Amino acid sequence: MSMTQQAAPAVPTPPASGPGKETDGRTQERPLALRLLARPEIGVFLGAVAVFIFFLVAAPPVRDGSSMANILYQSSTIGIMALPVALLMIGGEFDLSAGVAVITSALTASMTAYQLSMNVWVGVIVALAVSLAVGLFNGWMLVRTGLPSFLITLGSFLILQGVNLAVTKLITGNVATDDIQDMDGFDQAKAVFASSFEIGGVNVKITVVWWLVFAALATWVLLRTKYGNWIFSVGGNQQSARAVGVPVTFTKISLFMLVGFGAWFVGMHQLFAFNTVQSGEGVGQELIYIAAAVIGGCLLTGGSGSAIGPVFGAFMFGMVQQGIVYAGWNPDWFKAFLGVMLLGATLINLWVSRTATRR
Questions:
Q1: Are 260 and 135 in contact (CB under 8 A)?
Q2: DSSP string spanning 88-111?
Q3: pTM of the predicted model, to two decimals?
Q4: What is the per-residue pLDDT for 19?
């Protein structure tokens, strides 16, 4: 290059600020629509709106306030468990024992209180300890062995399923627990876990309130706390997270214990709502919880998701489950609808993520 070329004056650049500011493709602010599409819950929100409108048209009873309260109740029993399952999935793991763990918790509380003739709150506390211990075991096995969470929690699933049936038969002589309705503390516990209240003449279950409270709390934890950053970090890249000082072992174990807490809460609701528990229940529910989280935008590979998405995912499940009944259709089609909904939501999430990252 010649000296003349080297000394050529530079082309004037626009000021760093002001109305004439120019940016290249790397710094240009993305349009609002693309920023919204980048949110992991936007796809399921659109799907939930579509399902809601569909059943409003196809099933006129859905328009009634009591029907909507029932839909929200069904959604809440799924959603309360879908929240900790979603957090666990964001952390890069999932739990196949979540469904039967709910029944384990309910059986523990019922048999502890009834067979030992104690206040039901003693059974509630013992059940909480057992549920947390199950989560601790799953998390501890994961970090100690390095085995996939699929294998570890599949083993826990089979163990709990067998223990639920065998211990219940051994202690009660039946496949179900005894009715605890007349025991001390039952009314107070039911007020916490299974009561209802009226809004505008419509009976609303307390689980709907707990569901929304837990969703708000989970959202705050994910977006506003150091622990939320740890969850995303260990789900995105565990080794990198450990290298920058994230307590990977604590985060993984605590997430499994959080699933145990959710199983305890839902188990207490089932116990105090129906007074007795069938020991063979819960099988298959873990897939519903995982599906609600996946539909809500949580990736199976971890590192991405939200707490709001599973709320909409659980609402879609409750809407379909009750909407089929209100529409007068054969309820045997429910699982088929869920499968279609899962695939559809997954495709929508894929389209949304690709659209959001497209320049």
A1: yes
A2: HHHTT---TTHHHHHHHHHHHHHH
A3: 0.86
A4: 46
